[in-house]
Amino acid sequence: MAKTVLKNILQILIILIFNNFLAQKTPEKLPKNAVNDTISKKDTIVVKKEALEDILRTKADDQRRDVPKKMTFLNKNAQVKYQDMQIDADYISIDDNKNLIYARGKQDSLGKIIEPVITTQAGKKYETNEFSYNTKTKQAIAYNARTEESEGVITAQKTKKYNDSVFAMRNADYTTDEYYIKKKDTASDYFMRASNIKLIKTKEKSQIVTGPIQMYIERVPTPLILPFAILPFSDKRAAGILIPSFGEREDVGFFLNGLGYYQPIGEHFDLKVLADIYTKGSWNVRPQMNYLKKYRYSGTFTADVGTMVRGIKGLDDYSRNSTYRIAWTHTQDTKANPFLTFSASVDIVSTKFYNNNLNNNYIFNQNVLNTQQNSTVTITKRFLKLPVTITGTASYAQNFATGLADLRLPQMNVAINQFYLFKSKTGVRQGLLENITVNTGFNLTNFVSTQENELFTDAMWDKMQTGLKNNISLGTNTTVAKYFTFSLSANIDNALTTKTLKKYYDPVKNVDVEDIQKNVAGYSTFSSSASLQTTLYGMLKFKKGAAVEAVRHMMTPSLSFTYSPDFSSPGFGYYKNYYNAEGALTPYSIFEKGIVGSPSSGVVGALGFNIGNNIEMKVKSKSDSTGVKKIKIFESLNLSGNYNFAAKTHPWSVFSINGQSSFFNNKLSVNTSLSLEPYKIIFAPGATTGIRTEQFGHFSVQGFNVQLSYPLSSELFGEKTEYAKKYPAKGEVRNENYYFDDDNYAHFDQAWTLNINANYAYTKGLSALGNKIASVGLDGSIKLTPYWNINGSTHFDLVTKDLAYTRIGFSRDQRSFTINFNWVPFGQYKVYDFFIGIKANILSDALKYKDRSFTQPNAPF
């Protein structure tokens, strides 16, 4: 034993001597002039760095430590906490040599993972089947990982974590299906699959960058494949691809409509570029820029440029047309500057834009039926201490039927606020004098009507007219005999213009000539009127217990007298005479073709009348808490006309009757108008135009119009069925309740709406044959199921027996996305359009289903 102890001591001494020898270091050579006792380096002790930077905490139902292999094994309810990471799994192994933590989910008897590994880091939770983490490099590899980001979830076959900011995924699916995210369903209703996905996370935002990515619906692949995708997980605006709709149009072929890209530009701008592509060669590009300055102004610039190709090149039906549309809207915040406001609504299109349109949205919303386009730019100046408002306007109107364009540039209006001519002596205005009000202002207009190809050319400037008008209006009123309101008014108009008209007969060409002359001329006119008005009430009560309790009639009669002199008399100089081609002396106004209008001709001393009526009745009603209900028979029924004492012929005017009413709880709206000719009209043999005689009392219908509007809905035909009481069996799909009868048929609310519009118009005048216009329009929707909706509209011409316009639409709410289908089967444009859009807000920016931008209400800014 003594030998063994001695032997061990000797071995230890040899090891210590050997280590001491290895630890010695050859001293460095000192410079020649160096002092011999200088110490070249201080002695230091190097502490070996620990493999772990923090404490590794573990727990499990069963723990085992393999010391030689430096391995730790955790089984059943295993948990590891390290720094900001926590791993929960059924099995975890820790390898100290490789600095590796491996976790696996719970397996069934066949080795299938039935409970995942849950890894939580920095507040984010990840679910995987298997998970490996290197504590030294902080890199990780996961298999069948499930990662939730914002409104979506990513499921990847293999995920590699390079650091806390970059994750690479292989064979990954991304979806925003709420039911799949909340694990209410084991399969998502849709997902987007990519072979490679990179998830990039920063403090401010996160995003997914993918290569080719394909959409799957109910696990079925669709032809919707994108070459790449960038999905941002942020509340801020972000760039993204705009998903198109696709379909077919009879005239231009198959199409992709609305394919494009969205790009925010700085803090105040964003840009959207859309393209429409058709298989027969047509194309269209639609850039749109939005801008917004919070609490100041907002606006949009839009262009629509394309080429329409119809038919086959070389054949007679081939055509190629270029179209354009330029639009600008600008709105100023009312709080920005109450004394200076600016607004613009500019919409300029080529003449044949709507006849050669490539944007299918114009077909579905019936813009292709437009016959006129208007543009206006307005600036208004108000003053703090002056009662004056100055408004400057530039307007442009296009008429597609005539091809003419009306331009007003510039137009200025100076309005002086209404004021009283006399002060009140007592503070309460009484009598005619104290109630006299004055309204006045000036209006300057530059106007031209010309062809589009003449705009801003010498020909347009030569046609330009300038006019200045001033109007002074005085009015007053007072109460007479308690029940009558007496009013007086006077109007004075002053006008100047730069062009006048001269008419004469040209014997060489044998035509009447209208010559526009460039000279300054003006006129002044005045008129006055007096009116008397009162209100009468009448009540007719029925016997007690009757269904109708009472009928109430309110009548508002009024009489007015208007006078104005004959401004066509030679003394004023506003009218001239010439001998026409037939040799007849014909009067005309030198202001006829001007923009300031012409003074009235002939003396007017007319007595006018108007009788307004309102008729209601009270009926018994069990549904009303008072026991009675008011029903409006006529909301308004007006009869008007006048008699001109100064007229030499036909002193009576045409009588007009206008009515408005509503029935069935104000659902059915009825508007009517009727024109009656009081004089007899006779027709010569074979003549189509009649002659108005002096025989009064032969009333004939000269015009009649009626408009009906009735919105129907399922709510009008009874209360909702109490399915819970009627059917005991209940089921639920996506929070929507279904109730089943004894035969297991499902029952649910099928809401529907149907708006009915009907119009009939008849005009005759002096014509022997009148013109009729009659049409019926339907517009409605019905929910076949809680998630299937059908909507559409149609208009039927009762005169021609043709369908004027018909559109049918289908939509399907598929949990996470919406499928829309629109079809126009008749008319000039026969088209169907199919679109799939994601509903999640996170993809509304990336894939732009909702086209969200900061000009819309809930967008961040």
From TrEMBL:
Pfam family, one: LptD_2
Domain of life: Bacteria
Cellular component, GO annotation: cell outer membrane; transporter complex
Domain LPS-assembly protein LptD central: 208-679
Protein name: LPS assembly protein LptD
Species of the source: Chryseobacterium kwangjuense
